[in-house]
Write a sequence for this structure.
């Protein structure tokens, strides 16, 4: 009886060690989420004129005690189409890390969304796309409509469902969302 118990224990230990030594079950590396402190939107009028900058800067992050600093250099002009670019950075590092490069390299896993609110008369169109032909959105066009005012929100989603019909069904996680007060005149 002792031999049977000993043999059973040895067999159990052998199975246990064999099951634990399988290298095929090694964990996949985790892609760390990027820290984004700053979102800068540049709008260049297609017919020439002065560039407009919108900057959202939150150096202590969304959970920090300080509110973000939000600036817009100028109002939009009615009937003008602007070529837009978005740059996201981590300014907690010196020099600041350009996160836009990572977003564009991982284009299948990211998408920017543009959301006008409060009666703001603007339309937006994506100008760059991911490797599968779905919108990425670091480049876009914005056409200012009638005189109006409201908000314009830029949202970067990580791992959204693509294709999607907009932010409402995109899913994923928000990397950054920045809202600007905008006037068209």
């Amino acid at each position: 009886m002792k031999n049977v118990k000993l043999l059973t224990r040895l067999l159990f230990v052998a199975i246990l060690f064999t099951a634990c030594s399988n290298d095929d079950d090694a964990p996949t590396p985790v892609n760390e989420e990027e820290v984004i402190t700053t979102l800068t939107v540049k709008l260049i009028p297609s017919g020439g004129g002065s560039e407009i900058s919108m900057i959202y800067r939150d150096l202590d992050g969304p959970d920090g005690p300080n509110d973000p600093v939000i600036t817009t250099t100028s109002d939009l002009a009615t009937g003008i189409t602007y070529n837009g670019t978005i740059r996201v950075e981590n300014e907690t590092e010196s020099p600041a890390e350009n996160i836009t490069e990572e977003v564009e390299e991982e284009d299948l896993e990211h998408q920017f969304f543009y959301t006008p609110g409060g009666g703001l008369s603007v339309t937006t169109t994506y100008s760059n796309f991911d490797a599968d032909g779905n919108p990425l959105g670091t480049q876009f066009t914005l056409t200012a409509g009638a005189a109006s005012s409201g908000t314009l929100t830029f949202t970067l989603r990580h791992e959204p469902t693509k294709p999607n019909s907009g932010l409402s069904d995109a899913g994923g996680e928000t990397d950054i969302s920045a809202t600007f007060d905008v006037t068209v005149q």
The radius of gyration is 25 Å. The chain has one domain: 35-184.
